[in-house]
Amino acid sequence: MGPMRRALLVLIPLFLVLAVVGPVPAGPAADRTDVAGLLQGPSSQHWLGTDHLGRDILAQIIVASRLSLGSAVAATAIAAVAGIALGGASLARRVGPLFTAMLNVLVAFPSLLLAIFFAVIFGVGTRGAVLAVGLAMAPSFGRLTQTLGASVMASDYVSAARLLGLRHSRVLIGYVLPNVAGPLLLGLAFAAGNALVVMSGLSFLGLGVQPPEYDWGQLLQSGLSQIYTAPAAALGPALAIMLAGMTFSMVGEHGAEASSGVRRALRATARGDRRPVPAVPEETTVAEARGLRVAFPDAAGRPVTVVDGVDLSIGKGERVGLVGESGSGKSVTALALAGLVPHPGVVTADSLSVAKVDVLDVRRSDRDLKGRVAMVFQDPTRAMNPVLRVGTQIAEASAGRDVVEALRALKVASPALRARQYPHQLSGGTLQRAMIAMALAAEPDLLIADEPTTALDMTVQRATLRVLREAVTASGSALLFISHDIAVVSGMCERLIVMYAGGVVEDLPVRLLPGGAAHPYTAALLATLPSLDADRAAPLPVIPGSLPAAGSAGPGCAFAPRCPRATDRCLSERPPLADLSPGHRAACWHPLEGVA
Questions:
Q1: For the chain, the helix, strand and coil percentages under 3-state DSSP, each to the nearest 5
Q2: Which of 246, 252, 286, 533 is buried deepest, with most CB atoms within 10 A?
Q3: CA-CA distance, 591 to 587, in Å (whole number)?
Q4: What are 320's strand-pairing partners?
């Protein structure tokens, strides 16, 4: 047991006894006046001396423990509630910038200065001081909540929760706060110590506790009058403030270890609020994009286009593959379809809809799009909430359907046991299947799988893909499968969309592969696939050159610098995505022979 823990075992019971029981035996001595013993120094009868009315100073310090500690805890509770609400609101998509600006202004002022300002508004006295200190400390607690929560809000499992239709308040309580409970508890303990000091400062200045009540700050102010004759009168309450503040800080250091209990309480609060997903009319087209563009600002604030003019459509129950090199814009296109492009990305399009819901109409899509799109992310360890059981997360999406059956449908071994476990207790393949089960449990119109097997070994990858294909077929959901591996996509999908440098260069049925590819880039991707009968002594085939940086492609075809068929026209004029045959389009001035 370390020295800090031993100190806590002494200090915490000491202050609890002083605050709860202490005023009973010490009250008479603290209130008894003695005109014959005014302003006495320390003695065996009065260990810290007496005040200007002859009252025992040590007894007063003991009696003041209840009001000093109680008011500090009450102010901290106000700061925590107001700060978490303020920080949580700053993480919201719509009103977030407004509350962030408010936080930026408030945190610029010291807590004591704000406390004095609020104390003047609420009036002097204990109640006014508690409100003043609580509100004065709320901005710093709000900034802590915002800073900690921002990284959680950017995680994949929060994106999945938003796709399931959870309101921001539900995401904040069930997903953000449980994952930042440890640092928040640490901040809460430090805030309590700070509240004690600020409350004492207000009382010292005459703006806090008023006679006949008294706290340590008021006792400190009174003791300063005899600091030279009887310094113990001032040192006593000062020592109490210092020790109590240190105790709160040390509690914070060890409080983070107990955050699991708070997480369980927050998870219990988060249960419920399962909104039924409204029915969507039977339609042939599930997702459609026309002229889709996504841009992000560079370091200088200039917009850089990463997805430029994408046209695609996905039919009901259709399995469509989206392939291309890393950086070609596949994942950003999928995020745009789901309405999940992170700030400060800007999405524009001639039209962008999923299940006949306009994704660009934020007010409508927030209400109607949720539950229509589900997403299976690349890394299941980041896509599942680490503080919720697997079964709890699937139940949030399943609207009451059997969680065990959902896992069993994905061929998860011992589904009842897996439902009771936490994500870190599952293997990568099992966790990915649980993620697929959670996505399909909402019965989405469109399932987006973003390289879902990249982190798995080859054997587990093949089994997971087979299960995914069977599950999607059984559910009737349309599938957008994203990968850089054209061979994997060919085995999963019916249609292939090839992207390069933020644009679609070819859209063709999988049955035309490998000999029917029209665009040289598609043919080059196929040529790089390994073959069992290839000459092992020959170097591996590669595509010469590299993908252009986002926004750096010239006016012509982006693939032209790497294309052996490129002409001057390819370098100066961008080819449109034109029909070559029914169901087959390519953006190329010189498509491969035998196709055009």
A1: 55, 15, 35
A2: 286
A3: 8
A4: 480, 495
| Residue ranges of the chain assigned to CATH 3.40.50.300 | 284-317+328-372+446-452+478-528+549-589
CA dihedral 9, 15, 19, 23 (to 10 degrees): 110
Q: Which residues touch 172 (CB under 8 Å, ≥6 apart)? A: 88, 91, 149
504 and 310 in contact (C-beta within 8 Å)?
yes
Question: 112: Cβ–Cβ under 8 A, 6 or more apart, which residues?
Answer: 136, 198, 201
Confidence of residue 544 (pLDDT cuts 50, 70, 90): confident
Tokens read off for 57:
């100073």
pLDDT value of residue 109: 86
Beta-strand pair 503-509/495-500: antiparallel
Q: Which residues pair with 304 in a beta bridge?
A: 296
Residues of the chain with CATH 1.10.3720.10: 56-270
CA angle 376, 382, 388 (to 5 degrees): 95
Question: What is d(CA 316, CA 561) in angstroms, rounded to the nearest whole number?
Answer: 38
Calpha distance 55→39 (Å, rounded): 9
CB-based contact 335:446 (threshold 8 Å): no
Task: Give the Å distances, CA to CA, from 278 to 71, 161, 472.
Answer: 49, 17, 21
Q: Indicate the CATH number of 56-270 among 3.40.640.10, 3.40.50.300, 1.10.3720.10, 3.10.150.10.
A: 1.10.3720.10
H/E/C letters for each residue in 268-319?
Answer: HHHCCCCCCCCCCCCCCEEEEEEEEEEEEECCCCCEEEEEEEEEEEEECCCE
Strands laid side by side in the 578-581 sheet: 373-376, 446-450, 478-483, 319-323, 495-500, 503-509, 584-586, 578-581
Question: Within a 10 A sphere around the Cβ of 313, how many other Cβ atoms?
Answer: 17
pTM of the model: 0.66
Phi/psi for 324 (5° steps) reads 155, 165
Task: Indicate the residue type of 436.
Answer: I
For residue 448, the SS3 value is: strand
List CB contacts of 240: < 8 A, sequence separation 6 or more.
61, 64, 65, 68, 216
- Summarize pLDDT for 339-392 with one digit per residue, the tens: 888 777 889 999 999 888 888 875 555 556 677 888 888 877 777 888 888 888
Give the C-alpha distances (Å, rounded to integers) separating 328 from 26, 457, 494, 572. 75, 24, 21, 21
Scored b (16 or more CB within 10 A) or e, 495-514 reads: bbbbbbbbbbbbbbebebbe
**Do residues 521 and 563 make contact, with C-beta atoms less than 8 angstroms apart?**
yes
Strands of 349-412 (E only): list them: 351-354, 357-358, 373-376
Please compute Rg for the chain using Cα positions: 33
Give pLDDT, residue 76.
94
Do 350 and 138 meet the contact criterion of CB atoms below 8 Å apart? Answer: no
Evaluate the CA torsion angle 139, 140, 141, 142 in order and state its sign: positive
- Which architecture characterizes domain 284-317+328-372+446-452+478-528+549-589 according to CATH? 3-Layer(aba) Sandwich (3.40)
Q: Where are the alpha helices (DSSP H) in 123-231?
A: 126-153, 156-163, 168-171, 177-179, 181-205, 216-223
